Each structure stands twice: as structure tokens, then as C-alpha cells.
Amino acid sequence: HELGAYLYDRLSAVPGVRIYGPPPSVAPRAALAAFNAEGVHPSDLAAFVDQDGVAIRAGHHCTQPLHQELGVSGGSARASLYVYSTKEDVDAFITSLEATLKMFEGLGE
């Protein structure tokens, strides 16, 4: 649970990111985080972080009714960890995500 909490903490510190589900301090969480970033489609996020060798999923993740209930029409992105994942992997993901969001922010100027 430690690495999942680390993922949640790092991701929750990224401006404009909304993580779905309670924080690890409130309820146990799996080592994953479904999220959206303001102004960027989840598929675009997945494609751009992939360019840095980071794999995340984008879509409805078989939870279309939940997305509908949350008012999320385009699905979400999901970062998942496994037994071989490390804090360095989480850090690489966050670095890539932040660079991607900065790039998209620049497109609006």
C-alpha cells in the first residue's frame, strides 16, 4: 500500500489533476489511480507520456456507469502499479505528466 499511497500523493500534487476515489488516509486503495487533467483528453495524456516510455491506460476501464455518475464523458486516465514498480517509476510518470500538461497549457496561449 505504501507505493500506491506514494502515487496518490505525487499525483494529487499536480495542479489541474482530479483523482477519483478517496485518499489512502480515508480508505484502503489499490495501487492505481484513475484521474483526469483539466483541459486534456485522457487518450492524449496516454499518447504523450508513452513517448517518454510511460504506459498508462485511457478510457472507461469497464466503468461507464461510474463515469456517467461522476459526469465524466470522455473516460479517464489510469496509472497502475505492480509488484515490480518502484518509486522511481512513479517519479518518471509524474515528470512526464507534468511536461505533457505544460505542453498542452502552452497550446492555449
Write the layout of secondary structure elements.
Blueprint: H1 2-12, E1 17-19, E2 32-37, H2 42-50, E3 57-59, H3 64-70, E4 76-80, H4 87-107
Which strands sit side by side, in order, in the main sheet? Answer: 1-2-4-3
Between the first and last Cα atoms, what is the distance in angstroms? 40 Å
State the total count of DSSP E strands.
Answer: 4
Largest sheet: 4 strands, antiparallel
**What is the string of SSEs from the N terminus onward?**
HEEHEHEH
Give the proportion of residues in helices. 40-55%
State which percent range the strand residues make up.
15-25%
Would you tell me the overall average pLDDT? Answer: 90
Spatial shape: globular
Taking pLDDT < 50 over at least 5 consecutive residues as the criterion, the unreliable ranges are none
Structural class: alpha+beta
Taking all Cα atoms into account, the compactness measure Rg is 13 Å
Number of helices: 4
